């Protein structure tokens, strides 16, 4: 048997190691090259995975802070603030020590002590606060209880914490909009609100107008935010010596309106009383300067309190410009003027009242049986529909349409308010054409009616109603002044004067529908309206009950009107009133009377001037500093409210100061009733005008007793009884 052997070649271990070493060397070289290349790429590009490393480092140590621009203030015509910026604060507790330095702790160290202090000022129990302060979290907030805190509350909390040397509590301030008058032309003034509650959102704390003038003039009011950029250390403190890059904020411009706060407060008070007593579907009332078109006061129901937002869910519609309705017999003012201009109105001629057949239908007076054969002047006094159908027939349908267009019906006035309606002026069917003579078959807005009425009150020149008197740029002091805008109507001066003269018949004539609108000492030209409401379901007008829009327009003094007041009340509960017109009178009469009194030249005042000084402007001043300034003039002052800043003052800036004169300052805090002992009725009324509180006076002379104690909290609409005695308490 042959033996087979296998020859095995010996391997060299040194050679294998060399190969492995070369492989590892090459691998390391390649890896090092890759890393070096990667680092070089990062160094050149400065980014990794799409992230900018330089920017990240900059973000880590650079702090950008937004400088909030102050939103412009909205004032009434006399400089009283209507809408203004305010700050509220949110309570935050820092629980982590990662933002603290050894010498500067930033977190809550003694939660029990902190809880005892906080529970005094927020509506949470000590146990609830302590539970928050001991959470395993970086920081905590306190919900609604710790939100919207006033400056006064924040100051008191900080003072107590500093006294006990307690840390960890901070406050985040945010802009809010303050409307110090409560319910005050709310839909017209509008609202400005923050657009986001997210602090990371760029819109955070940015107020934006969402209604009314706040919305229309948002770009002018809001201003431009600024920024601060600076370097910080790991603990968040500013690095000393580093340059701060600062771009200042530019505050928004201020709006000065045509509204007169005294008249507006009165109007809101009477509207509220009527609303509570008669619960109408809606109401509007607007007082306008007949010569210039300035809206002096305007209100509606439903309305809302702009500060508390109470009632805002009832309606977002601004009835002044968004309420389109058939005006009813107040349109006869315009028909009367057109027929006088055309020579077809013959006041002493007779016609048969009651009803008239026209255009395939029948038009009735509100008294279907009529009053027999009467003159057209009596027909005006009685508000006869038939009388005005005759006027349109005599002047011709085409001619009457020419006047309707000239008055501006069917086109928007251009009030610079959102969502203004243009109404309708179709004028298509024969019966529709006739019905426009007494306010049916077309739809209008209150502001359109005011524009048309101004042609009668202003010698034939229509004036555009407006709300903004001027805009002041606080940075440049540039003033943009708004001027009256006139449109020549088809009505001549002579026709306008005759129309006013005839309209006094509705007030003075024994048969006049406006007899209840007399104002002692003044001649009023007026026209009432009782407009039917159209039911879209039945395609017919409602009939009977209170299913009407009751209205009145008054222009006074009748020989040369200073003011026009237009009031509408839809579907009120009579609640003791015999007719809808009595409900309207409760608004019209007190407002028109007060407006005419204000328009009259003031009587000379024999009070001796003790010093040749003028009242300074204390608006926006610190409360204590304002008091010191007034006291330096040897005058006493009464403070209304708990705030730290003055928002209204009496007397107004530039008024001459008299010996013993009362000065009254309203702050931005919750309103309080001053001690009015020894005050005259007129001085007390200044408090009413500033606060919206209604005083009921008993007796004559000076205040001897007040129903609410001094410093009691009050709000617009509060009623307070004041007892007067013949001798001033101060003299006693």
From TrEMBL:
Domain PASTA: start-end pairs: 667-726
Alphabetized PROSITE patterns for the sequence: PASTA (PS51178)
CDD domains, alphabetized: PASTA_Pbp2x-like_1, PASTA_Pbp2x-like_2
Any one GO BP annotation for this protein: response to antibiotic
Pfam families (UniProt xref): PASTA (PF03793), PBP_dimer (PF03717), Transpeptidase (PF00905)
PANTHER family: PENICILLIN-BINDING PROTEIN 2B, PEPTIDOGLYCAN D,D-TRANSPEPTIDASE
UniProt record similarity statement: Belongs to the transpeptidase family.
Name under which the protein is recorded: Penicillin-binding protein 2B
Species of the source: Marinilactibacillus piezotolerans
